[in-house]
Amino acid sequence: MTKLLKACKNCSLITEEDVCQLCGNQTSKEWQGYVIIIDHTRSEIAKRMGINVNGKFALKVR
Domain 6-61 belongs to what architecture? Predict the structure, then answer.
C-alpha cells in the first residue's frame, strides 16, 4: 500500500500527517512537484523559496 503524501499549505513541507510538523498548519492532498533540500544554508533554491530547514518540499500547493 502506498503512502498518501500531503503538503503544507503554508511552508510546503511534504508529510503524511494532516497537520504540518514544521509550522502546525493544515496540509493538502493537492500539490505538484517537489524539491529535496539537503543543505539549506548553501542552496539557492531554498533561499528563493524561503526554506530554512532541510527536507522535501512541494513546488505548488492548492
Answer: Single Sheet (2.20)
